[in-house]
Structures are given as C-alpha cells and as structure tokens.
Amino acid sequence: MPEEPREQKAGLAVEDTRRPRPAACSAVAEQDAAGRAASRSTVLRPQKSNISDANFPVDAEGRTYHLGTKRGEVANRILSVGSEKRALMLAEYLEPVAPGRGLFMLESSRGFLTITGRYTGAPVSIIVTHMGMANADFVVRENRHAAALHAASSCADADADDYSRGAVVEGEMAIVRLGTCGALQPPAHLGSFVVADPGAILIRRNPDAFTPEGEEGGLVPYTFSRPIPSDPALSLALEQEAVRLLGPEGVCRGLNATADSFYSSQGRRTGWFEDRNETLLADLLCCYPEAVTLEMETAMLLDLARCSRGSIRAAAGVIALADRASNHFLAAERTEQLERATGQACLAALARTPLDDDWGPHNGSGPPVWAS
Ligand code: R1P
C-alpha cells in the first residue's frame, strides 16, 4: 500500500497511527470504507505552549488545557467512551471527515484522544474520557468551552452570546456515554446493555464520617443524591438502535447509580481500609429500589447537561460487565462484541438526533474540520 501523505500543522506533532482492522470489519463495503478512514488517519499531538487565563486555561491557538482541542475540531455529536481501545475500535465505523481524507485524531498531553469523522454522514466525535467524574467534567466543559468570555469585562457582565462565541463546539450538543457497569438486579444481568433512563443518582463518600467527631455525630459514610434526568428522546433513540442490533432481550432501561470511586463507594470490600460500606448496596436499593446499574461517570454528564443553559442533551448506555449479586464477570470476547454493537447503536442514535448545530460564519478560526 503506498504511503499516505502526512499532514504537518503548526504547533502539532504528527504521528503515524495505522492499526490493523479485524476481519469482521471488512465484511460490509460501507464498513470497509469506514475502516480505511481509521487506518489511514494520523494522531496529532499538540506541542506544549504557554497557557493564558487561569479561570479557563487555553493556549494561544485556543486549545483547551486538558483535552487539547480547539474550535472546529470536535463535532456537535459526541460519543464519550472510557478507554482508548474502545474508541479506536469504534473509529473503524466512522467515515472520513471529508471525501478523500482520513479521520481527525488528536491526543492531548493528558491522554485525552479525540477522533472526529462522520457516521451515516453526520459529523461525530469519539472522545476517550477515561474514568471518573472529574474526567467526565473535563470532556463536557472543555468542549462547551467559551473563550469569548474575554470579550466581556467580567463573568458577571457576560451574556449568553459571550459564552457561545468561541466555544470549541458551536451550537447545540448531544453527548452519549458508552460505558461498562456492574449489574445490581434484574432486568440488568451480565451482558445486558442498560440505558440510563430515567437517569442517574450520585453516590458520594463523606470523609467527615470517618473522623472521631463524625462518628460521634453519627454522620453517614455515603450519601445518595436525587435522580438526575437523562434526555428522554436521546435515551429512546439509543434504546431503539440497541434493540435493532442486539434484539430486545439484550437491552433494558433503568436508573443508574454513579459512584465517586470504584471500590469503597460501590460497596467493594478491601481489607486494608476502613470503608464502612458493608450495607451500602442494600441501603442504595432500599432508597432506590429501581436502581439497576453502578458505574462512575453518568451522573456527572447528566448534571452538566442539566446545567448547560439548554445547550447540551445527554444520555448514557452501559454494558453490564460485572454481576454484583452473583460475583461473575463477562468474558473478554463477549465484551468486545457488545462494545462494537452498542457503540454502533450510540453512533446511530447520535446521527439521527436533530440538533441546532449550524456553525454559521467561522469567526476567523476557519471552518470546522468536517467542512474543509
Ligand atoms: C471502572 O473499571 C471503569 O469502568 C466503567 C466505570 O464507570 C469506570 O470508568 O466505565 P468505562 O468502561 O466507560 O470506563
């Protein structure tokens, strides 16, 4: 195969990233074209540069501090996944950003990988969010970022337009999380794909409860938030697309619980630490009998969407990898099959979701990568 020309952009180091595609991907011509787009793409790595603005750090190009992307590199439709392996696997289903080109791929110095391409024609970005609520916060906020806040003399003077000009993504956004989880009870079971509908609650560990004063005062070691809603239409689209690919028996919906850690706040017992979580799962099900899954990011995504001044729609679906009642774990091969199928369901749900995503004039930053 002839060598593809490499693109060198100012301030970006470019690295070859060809990866072999699995045979399953070449079965369908459309997937084959999409797979070729992934295999001939290169990963851009922004070089270190000076950062301005301690309130919302960006570099001179407007690249955000942790994700490293700037205006026009990220699509309005985002699929957030926990691992690079999952992201690269699903990138095989993306078409090029524009005819004759590869996918846009950028990895920040903090290891956030953003891949932008198209799915059934709609621009979509897959973003490696890694694990936990803080990382979900980076992904949502830095893509919704508003550099033009500088235009206002202070935060208090800023109006909605100040916030939207200069955003990494302009216009309405839809974000879907594809993750893995622990199943708590039916209808979720090992290998189920569970859509977080009606939403998620948040489980937080309370450090004050572990002090002598906290113990004396009877502080509870873990607290549960109220349910945070997911976007009903996006959740329904996700469920329908998943049923189309997996059949109705493989898909269900229910309340998700997002925990602020993998171990103590999900009721896992480890002898070296005093966690006082022996009754945590029973307490959770007593408080929320309808809770079916446990993971670590969805509540943050839904909370930020709820607080986004109406600019973000969010939903999540998780593959039940661990059965917390039986203590079983899903086989690796089955996990990958489910990641591929449910990843395509997420991409299809995003692609069919209507958004107010007209980028209009480009404000001097050039057109988005899918328009050039
Ligand atoms: C823990 O192993 C991680 O897996 C789950 C949890 O939410 C946490 O991020 O999701 P992902 O598979 O999306 O990472």
From TrEMBL:
Residues 1-43 are annotated as: Disordered. Coiled coil: none annotated. GO terms for cellular component: cytosol. GO terms for biological process: uridine catabolic process. Residues 79-346 form the Nucleoside phosphorylase domain. Residues 1-19 have a biased composition (Basic and acidic residues). InterPro entries: Nucleoside_phosphorylase_d (IPR000845), Nucleoside_phosphorylase_sf (IPR035994). GO terms for molecular function: uridine phosphorylase activity. PANTHER family: URIDINE PHOSPHORYLASE (PTHR43691). This is Nucleoside phosphorylase domain-containing protein.
